């Protein structure tokens, strides 16, 4: 019988069928969890820091969805750090003001250590980004940004960067490959915090890079192997199990987010709703300021006051509680990671909390 060609399948089917073991009578349907630090000599892998077949099952599935070769890392930040390692010493990075605060943090740190310099831009201002590209080594993009939910013109930015030999990275954590495939838009490398939507259950930390460029893949692989920021096999196994339902979770979460964004726009306690009509993160700015934002965080009962996003459960957080968060993020901004609960329960809880403020 002919092998199944995954490139003929839609994303939903790839999520369900990806990374399965070969079909042999009596074999397992789910990928085995391979817990071994070393492997019998003369095989493909050798040692557990170089590779692991449970990682590969996850990497093949994610890589297939993004249209490139994936590498799993110990966390999203480990994958971010691997991408930043592509910048030569003394090089220049163009990065959004409102990149994920850990990404902003590592760029700040390396800048203080004079390893590289950073030009910070409003990523939604295409002209400003383009004029910052001259002589740069790497363009970092996020769209939508976290937590301001600004949208970048990715195809234009990637095309111009490519013509100037600037390597481009796109953090696709918020959109997931189901809503946006940055490699098809012209990015060199996609980076993920698989901690979020990809795994989807707030029970592990994991990161990934994906690229079509063999030379970049080899450098990222070398950084992972020598830097040692490798994932545990259990994390990749759980992440792949979570990915099986990514399309279902995301569909419900996005529908809930769009519904809530519409209702929040009408709410008198809400001065501004930031929702880019994609994804399941909504940021709101409260008329009552920082104090009202803090009260709402504590008043909710269905929503959980916690950082992070992309899990089945809805999370709420005033972002400026983090010292690393840029001061251009309003004090009264509350980020909502909308989950897959019943939308009426989510609304009643949020409405009660907002109205009590
Ligand atoms: C959470 C997050 C990261 C960092 O990932 P970790 O898995 O927490 O290390 C990077 N980028 C974005 C957009 C994130 O939300």
UniProtKB/TrEMBL annotation:
InterPro entries assigned: Cys/Met-Metab_PyrdxlP-dep_enz, Cys_met_metab_PP, PyrdxlP-dep_Trfase, PyrdxlP-dep_Trfase_major, PyrdxlP-dep_Trfase_small
Signal sequence segment: none
EC number per UniProt: 4.4.1.2
Keywords: Pyridoxal phosphate
Gene Ontology BP terms: cysteine biosynthetic process via cystathionine; transsulfuration
GO molecular function, one term: methionine gamma-lyase activity
Reaction equations catalysed: L-methionine + H2O = methanethiol + 2-oxobutanoate + NH4(+); L-homocysteine + H2O = 2-oxobutanoate + hydrogen sulfide + NH4(+) + H(+)
Organism: Luteipulveratus halotolerans
Residues with N6-(pyridoxal phosphate)lysine modification: 196
Co-factor(s): pyridoxal 5'-phosphate
Family: Belongs to the trans-sulfuration enzymes family.
PROSITE patterns linked: CYS_MET_METAB_PP
PANTHER family per record: CYSTATHIONINE GAMMA-LYASE, TRANS-SULFURATION ENZYME FAMILY MEMBER
An annotated GO cellular component: cytoplasm
Protein name according to UniProt: homocysteine desulfhydrase
Enzyme class: lyase
């Amino acid at each position: 019988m002919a092998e199944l060609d995954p490139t003929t399948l839609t994303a939903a089917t790839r999520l369900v069928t990806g990374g399965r073991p070969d079909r042999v009578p009596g074999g397992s349907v789910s990928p085995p969890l391979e817990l071994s630090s070393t492997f019998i000599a003369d095989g493909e892998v050798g040692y557990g820091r170089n590779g692991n077949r449970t990682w590969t099952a996850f990497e093949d599935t994610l890589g297939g969805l993004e249209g490139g070769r994936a590498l799993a890392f110990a966390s999203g930040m480990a994958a971010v750090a691997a991408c930043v390692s592509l910048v030569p010493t003394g090089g220049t990075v163009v990065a959004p003001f409102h990149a994920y605060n850990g990404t902003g943090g590592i760029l700040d740190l390396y800048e203080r250590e004079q390893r590289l310099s950073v030009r910070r831009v409003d990523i939604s201002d295409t002209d400003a980004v383009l004029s910052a590209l001259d002589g740069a080594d790497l363009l970092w993009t996020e769209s939508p940004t976290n937590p301001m939910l600004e949208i970048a013109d990715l195809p234009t930015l990637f095309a111009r960067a490519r013509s100037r030999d600037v390597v481009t990275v796109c953090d696709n954590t918020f959109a997931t490959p189901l809503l946006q495939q940055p490699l098809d838009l012209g990015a060199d490398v996609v980076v993920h915090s698989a901690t979020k939507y990809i795994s989807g259950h707030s029970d592990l930390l994991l990161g990934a890079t994906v690229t079509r460029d063999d030379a970049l893949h080899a450098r990222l692989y070398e950084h992972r192997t020598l830097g040692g920021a490798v994932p545990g096999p259990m994390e990749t196994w759980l992440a792949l199990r979570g990915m099986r339902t990514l399309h279902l979770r995301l569909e419900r979460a996005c529908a809930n987010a769009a519904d809530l964004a519409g209702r929040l726009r009408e709410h008198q306690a809400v001065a501004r709703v930031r929702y880019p009509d994609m994804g399941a993160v909504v940021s709101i700015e409260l008329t009552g300021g920082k104090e009202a934002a803090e009260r709402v965080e504590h008043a909710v009962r269905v929503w959980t006051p916690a950082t992070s996003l992309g899990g089945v459960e809805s999370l709420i957080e005033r972002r400026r509680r983090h010292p690393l968060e840029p001061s251009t993020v309003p004090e009264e901004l509350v980020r909502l990671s909308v989950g897959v609960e019943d939308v009426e329960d989510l609304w009643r809880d949020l409405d009660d909390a907002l109205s009590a403020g």
